[in-house]
Write a structure and sequence with these properties.
Pfam families: HAD
Largest sheet: 6 strands, parallel
Number of strands: 6
Strand content: 5-15%
Organism: Streptomyces bugieae
Mean pLDDT: 93
Distance between the termini: 31 Å
Shape: globular
Protein name: Haloacid dehalogenase-like hydrolase
């Protein structure tokens, strides 16, 4: 793989996009199709881990694979159009490009559905890698030589650290600032609107291959 001065990875759900409205609608349709109650309001408070973890709450173990496949098939019709980008998402990717870098998305979401979200919203990362959660995200981060990973979940912090990347956490998902800090996030931002200015400091102070200074990680 060609060497680039900077590669930044981003999580998808609740980092770049507010997928709660779409996921809620998909779960409601899944419940209607199967005749099994799924508390969609509760489900969207637990976004981050793989789909199968949520499906196990409502269906017996022997049906998890079948129901997960049905949910993923329903997803394009019920979840894409109603899902907005989070504030700062477009600007965050643009900031990476302006710094001469590459932006990739590494997500636990089924990759074809992740790509549908990005295309619908006009978000254009350089690569999209799906079906990776927590520490497993390190595989893609290492493959793309990502030195920064931005996410909203403590699992994203673990994934960044496993890849020996800087963990930049945004408090826009199910994990609040205290949880993200306790998990070891190196940088804590309120949301992605704060990312471009942080990235500018990081690039100025360390993204040429040296270690970023304390000011860049504060």
């Amino acid at each position: 793989m060609a060497a680039y001065p900077l590669t930044v990875g981003f999580d998808l759900d609740m980092t770049l996009i507010d997928s709660r409205p779409g996921i809620k609608a998909a779960y409601e349709e899944l419940s209607a199709r199967t005749g099994t109650h799924v508390d969609a309001e509760a489900a969207v408070t637990r976004l981050g881990p793989p789909l199968e973890e949520e499906i196990r709450r409502w269906f017996p173990a022997e049906r998890v694979a079948e129901i997960s496949a049905l949910y993923r098939a329903l997803y394009p019709e019920y979840a894409i159009a109603s899902t907005p980008a989070l504030p700062g998402a477009h600007e965050a990717i643009a900031a990476v490009r302006a710094a001469g870098g590459r932006a990739i998305v590494v997500t636990a979401k089924y990759e074809p559905n992740a790509k549908l979200h990005l295309a619908h919203l006009g978000l254009e990362p350089d690569a999209v890698i799906g079906s990776l959660w927590a520490e497993a995200k390190a595989e893609a981060l290492r493959d793309h030589d990502a030195r920064v990973y931005v996410g909203d979940h403590t699992g994203d912090v673990r994934g960044a650290h496993t890849a020996e990347a800087l963990s930049v956490a945004v408090a826009t998902g199910p994990c609040d600032a205290a949880e993200l800090r306790a998990a070891g996030a190196d940088v804590l931002l309120g949301d992605l609107t704060e990312f471009p200015s942080w990235l500018a400091r990081y690039v100025a102070e360390g993204a040429d291959g040296t270690e970023p200074s304390a000011a860049a990680t504060a």
